[in-house]
Amino acid sequence: MAVAVRGSRGGGGSGFGGFSLRSFFSYRIFVSAMFSLLFIATLSVLFTTNPSTPHHDSALPTTGNAYMRRTFLALNSDPLKTRLDLIYKQANDHVTLVNAYAAYARKLKLEISRQMRMFDDLASNFSDLQMKPSYRSALFGSDGPLDEDVLRHFEKEIKDKVKVARLMIAESKENYDNQLKIQKLKDTIFAVNELLIKAKKNGAFASSIAAKSIPKSLHCLAMRLVEERISHPEKYKEEEPSPEFEDPSLYHYAIFSDNVIAVSVVIRSVVNNSDEPWKHVFHVVTDRMNLAPMKVWFKMRPVERGAYVEVKAVEDFTFLNSSYVPVLRQLESAKLQKFYFENRAENATTDTHNMKYRNPKYLSMLNHLRFYLPEMYPKLHKILFLDDDVVVQKDLTGLWKIDLDGKVNGAVETCFGSFHRYAQYLNFSHPLIRERFNPRACAWAYGMNIFDLDAWRQEKCTEQYHYWQNLNEDRTLWKLGTLPPGLITFYSTTKSLDKSWHVLGLGYNPSISMDEIRNAAVIHYNGNMKPWLDIAMNQYKKLWTYYLDNDMEFVQMCNFGL
Fold first, then answer.
1. Residue 249 CA to chain centroid, in angstroms?
2. List of residues 6+ apart from 432 with CB closer than 8 A
């Protein structure tokens, strides 16, 4: 009974298990068979597609489909075809690299035509190699097995050319990389230079605006002085001219300016450094607008130590009219007025070289009074002309003792090397200038000039000035300003003075030696950075503010010297 029961259970279980195993193995066999058939069908389709088409064209392969087709063909037919395919791929890669370097060389316009020709020849050789009849028929012309000896010879030629290509690229790579850096550097320099030119133009325009504008402190001072004149008219009545104004035995100075504070500094510096200040006479000429402030200043702050000051307006010299003075006549020209007064700000930065000459001060009568000194002061024999942007540091009476050798103008020359020669101020392409003057002649400076008025009258210098100023109405002989006509007028009548009498450049040159400045009789703030402006150079400004009258109440109220 016991055995029967065990046997029955075992038999029943064995029957059920056998059925399950047979079903499972039958299913696996079926799936395997299906996958095998699908794989065979796929291979059949791949290997029978375009069977008659050669797998290599006359050119090197470039597409992925061609590469894949050759790969399957090589696997299916001949192992040597795989080797051939790898050789072609290597050759194709080097052809691409060689062509890239050749194109790059052409783009950079390198002066190495030999290397460019070698690159082109090498690229052609790669492409032409497969066109050889022996290789074309043995390797590319049939679908049968490849000739191993031909393939080995073909591989050797390809590797030789690859080796040559690599050597050429290695030799040329550094050169081409340097050329790329040079080209990039040139592009950068060009771009930076454009920015620099633009910045210079904008800087020159801003500097010009700052130099031309009237500082708030200077405007304040003029208004305070006019207010004082209006509030106390009894204090400022006109007085009879002093006889010293025409005494030729005294030391006479001419200062033409519309800047009250600048004139006061010039006169204070002369008086404070003179040995006999009571022998010095200052002739100040200003415009009608600034006549009252100028007179009130010297009434409120009389010159110390006995010096004399005469203040006049340009209009007090009645002979200075448009019928006699070329500059005044030219100012009435509509063309010249347009040149000066219609110079709009948006166009100003397009002509930085000539921007400064568009300042109307260059045709201001105050600026041209220096050419009429003998007529303005007919009883004087000598006079010292001073600009309003100078400071006197020593006694100047020695200038009257210099023998000018019959010359009219005593001035300090400014030329050095090729700089500050006549060629820089006059247009020597004009025949009149070219015939009369030497382009290498040395220029001199205005700002401190001792004039022999008797020699001036004898040489008829004012007539010479009129002649040339009339010829230059269209600005073809020189640009504008007073130095070019001065160089022409006193071309052969100027005596050079020692440079220590007059040191220039404190209005633009930050590198002037302090020893040179200390040894100078007169220092000149020529340039845009005037000492009364905020843009003045600090290392020089104190030399000017030293003579500023800080005790004057209006100076304190208007914040001068801060």
1. 53
2. 471, 477
Instruction: Check: CB of residue 449 under 8 Å from CB of residue 410.
Output: yes
CA 481, distance to chain mean position in Å, is 25
Q: What phi and psi, each to the nearest 5 degrees, are found at residue 145?
A: -60, 145
Q: Is the dihedral of CA 462, 466, 467, 468 positive or negative?
A: positive
Compute the distance between CA of residue 47 and CA of residue 76 in angstroms, rounded to an integer.
8
Burial of 469 (0-12, 13-18, 19+ CB in 10 A): buried
Q: Is the dihedral of CA 223, 227, 228, 229 positive or negative?
A: positive
Q: How far apart are CA 165 and CA 161, in angstroms?
A: 6
| Per-residue tokens: 495 | 């005596």
C-alpha span between 523 and 175 (Å, rounded):
57
Contacts of 298 (CB under 8 A, 6+ apart): 264, 284, 309, 311
Along the chain (562 residues), what's the average pLDDT of each consecutive run of 10 residues? 42 47 65 74 59 42 48 56 74 74 64 59 64 63 67 76 74 66 83 91 80 84 94 91 96 96 97 96 96 96 94 96 91 66 50 53 83 97 97 97 96 93 95 96 97 97 96 90 95 96 95 96 94 92 94 88 54
Q: What is the pTM of this model?
A: 0.67
β-sheet bridge partners, residue 282: 253, 309
Between CA 362 and CA 479 the distance in angstroms is 10
* Closest CA relative to residue 391, chosen from 535, 497, 217, 536: 536
**Which two structure tokens, joined as six digits, stand for 405?**
């050798």
Q: Which helix (H) or strand (E) holds 35?
A: helix 2-48
* Dihedral pair phi/psi, residue 560, rounded to 5°: -80, 145
Q: Using CA atoms, how far apart are residues 513 and 516, in angstroms rounded to an integer?
A: 5
**Number of neighbours of residue 18 by Cβ within 10 angstroms:** 10
SS3 sequence of 311-335: EEEHHHCCCCCCCCCHHHHHHCCHH
**Total residues belonging to the chain:** 562
Rounded-to-integer distance, Cα 443 and Cα 415, Å: 6
Q: Cα–Cα distance between 198 and 214 in angstroms, integer?
A: 26
Contacts of 488 (CB under 8 A, 6+ apart): 426, 437, 464, 465, 468
